[in-house]
Amino acid sequence: MLSFWRQYLAISPFYIVFIVFSFFPVFFSLYLAFQRWDGIGTMQFVGWQQFRFLWKDPVFWLSIRNTLVIWVFSTVPTLLGALVLATLLHSVRRFKGFYRIALFLPNVTSIVAVAIFFGAVFSNNFGLVNAILGTVGISPVPWLSNPWLIKGVIALLMTWMWTGYNMIIYLAGLQAIPLEIYEAAKMDGAGPVRVFLRITIPILRPIIMFTVIISTINGLQSFSEPQVLFGTNAANASLGGPGQAGLTTLLYFYQSAFMNNDYGYGAAIVWAFFILIVVLVLINWRVVQRGRKA
């Protein structure tokens, strides 16, 4: 092995950066979860006290509920819309490259810029949506004040950003399906809907499982959307808007750790949330696998 020291030296920067900025922080945060620390003073070991307080913390459970509702509101239409768009785009013969770029463009747009745009469009008083509704005689809708509408706006923002990403993945899977299968189905008299349900969906099931897992991980980590929409910072600790309706778990972690300087409790929040994400990913995987066996 010593004879390859030059090769190991060449790839060592990646591993050094990974250990310093990824590997070490993960385990240090686990260590912090059992400490009380404000980031400056001496750490105080408190054992499971942080997690016991977390279990009784109503704001933590509120953030969990908000995160799960936003996740469902965004993930279901994102994946269904992506599958429908991919199927339609797969059948298009002209300008296919243009449509791909146009539908994928939201995913590479700055999430901060998108959140600012959505905040302006859905503004209670001067938003474009309420202006359009006013032209047909509908009273202004409190998009950023009503608890359920707040979650709906955040979910719509996430749907708009991630539909194109999943569509590209589904489109790649559709292009890998041999045309002979579809031709044989048509010869047997199968219609478009039956072909889609009986051939396309079963063949794409591994890809669908992948997108479900990725969407679960991404959807549960919503942070920038409510933070930018409601201007959550040290000077304006609105914590997800009126009634904390947009308070997600990562936003609550940010408030606990970096605004209240309670790094130990913040670490406990993210580790509890990590366990929840793992559980939900395993449930999704089992559901998709069971459908595949059936």
Automatic annotation (TrEMBL):
Keywords: Cell membrane, Membrane, Transmembrane, Transmembrane helix, Transport. One of its GO terms (biological process) is transmembrane transport. PROSITE patterns: ABC_TM1. GO terms for cellular component: plasma membrane. Belongs to the binding-protein-dependent transport system permease family. This is Sugar ABC transporter permease. It holds the Pfam family BPD_transp_1. The chain crosses the membrane at residues 12-34, 68-89, 101-122, 148-174, 195-217, 263-285.
